[in-house]
Write a structure and sequence with these properties.
CATH topology of the domain at 6-179 and 217-244 and 282-291: Rossmann fold
Structural class: alpha/beta
Low-confidence stretches: none
Bound molecules: nicotinamide-adenine-dinucleotide
Number of strands: 13
Length: about 325
């Protein structure tokens, strides 16, 4: 791949998108962003806006707009744009399937027409439950436990079908729980940012259910590096990769760590217990072996970086 690749990032004004754009721009690539700002913000890209080729405010479901945008002869499309809220997918499955299935299909079709490599952000939530102490590798069974995970499995399937049918270069990524600066810290955000923000405001941390659900957290800049490595490694084509720290942390332990006895930890009723996954721990050895990737920021460092950023907001 040319040192200055032309890359479209859908959902590039969101949390993962903005960090991936920054990583690529720092490496000298040319980056376009398409985002409808439904959950992203222009201020997320303010730091490097002048280095972007273009920030297009628009929807992945807008076929005309997407078709025009692809006239830019991209080398790679990194597809992040999606409705990401699990509860919202349960309350409004139509929106979820329109954005995540139809929207993904629109982007994929343009990739096929222009022979653009498609790198897809799926999710570790697609996996069937595991026993405590087990790690999840890419061959683990899948389970559409809610409309959101079903939409991600569907996205993976249609993308893989284009690899098999049309030989389109594709890569599928299943990141575990990412956290860090620019993740939303209001009720729509990630648990890490929500907890740190509440702690900074002196408010109690609210844990869903008994808090024994475990997650594998890893820091956003490690995730951006994982995504970029997957984009530029020919051995990644047609493959699926997990990414995580390989360490499972119970949400109640995370809450207690962040609360640090300075604010209360409250246990509240879970909104969607049936869609909850109790154990999540990544086996990322495939990414390590093929992409030469592993996370380098530990939990303490990541929490500190996130806290500093939230304090500055
Ligand atoms: N954050 C995580 O821990 C995590 C883990 C695994 C997978 N993912 C996946 O990675 C991707 C990015 O996640 P994120 O945390 O950065 O979410 P995010 O909501 O911050 O980013 C998604 C972006 O897509 C935009 N968007 C949504 N629908 C759109 C549409 N129809 N047209 C154009 N833009 C649209 C939003 O405005 C937002 O900026 C998502 O596909 C998500 O499912 C996230």
């Amino acid at each position: 791949m040319d040192i200055k690749a032309k890359i479209l990032i859908t959902g590039g004004a969101g949390f993962m998108g903005r960090w991936t754009a920054k990583n690529l721009l720092d490496k000298g690539h040319k980056v376009w962003i398409l985002d409808n700002l439904s959950n992203g913000f222009e201020k997320n890209v303010e730091e490097f806006k002048d280095k972007l080729e273009e920030l297009v405010i628009g929807d992945i479901k807008d076929r005309k707009l997407v078709s025009n945008l692809f006239k830019n002869n991209f080398d790679i499309c990194i597809h992040f744009a999606a409705a990401i809220d699990v509860q919202e997918s349960i309350d409004n499955p139509e929106k979820c399937f329109n954005d995540n299935c139809l929207g993904t299909f629109n982007i994929l079709e343009e990739c096929r027409r222009h022979n653009v490599k498609m790198v897809f952000a799926s999710s570790a939530l697609v996996y069937k439950k595991i026993e405590p102490g087990q790690k999840i590798a890419e061959g683990h069974s899948l389970n559409p436990s809610c409309p959101y995970t079903a939409s991600k499995i569907n996205g993976e399937d249609i993308i893989m079908s284009y690899f098999k049918t049309y030989n389109l270069p594709v890569v599928i990524l299943r990141p575990f729980s990412i956290y860090g600066p620019y993740q939303r810290s209001d009720s729509e955000g990630g648990v890490m940012s929500i907890f740190i923000n509440k702690k900074l405001k002196g408010e109690p941390l609210e844990v869903f259910g008994d808090g024994k659900q475990g997650r594998d957290f890893f820091y956003i800049e490690d995730c951006a590096e994982f995504i970029v490595k997957a984009c530029f490694n020919d051995k990644a084509i047609g493959e699926i990769f997990n990414a995580g720290s390989g360490i499972e942390l119970k949400i109640k332990d995370l809450a207690e760590k962040i609360a640090d006895n300075k604010v209360e930890v409250k246990f509240i009723k879970h909104h969607h217990p049936h869609a909850e996954i109790m154990n999540m721990c990544a086996d990322s050895s495939k990414a390590e072996n093929i992409l030469g990737w592993k996370p380098i920021i530990n939990l303490e460092q990541g929490i500190n970086k996130t806290t500093q950023w939230l304090k500055s907001q």
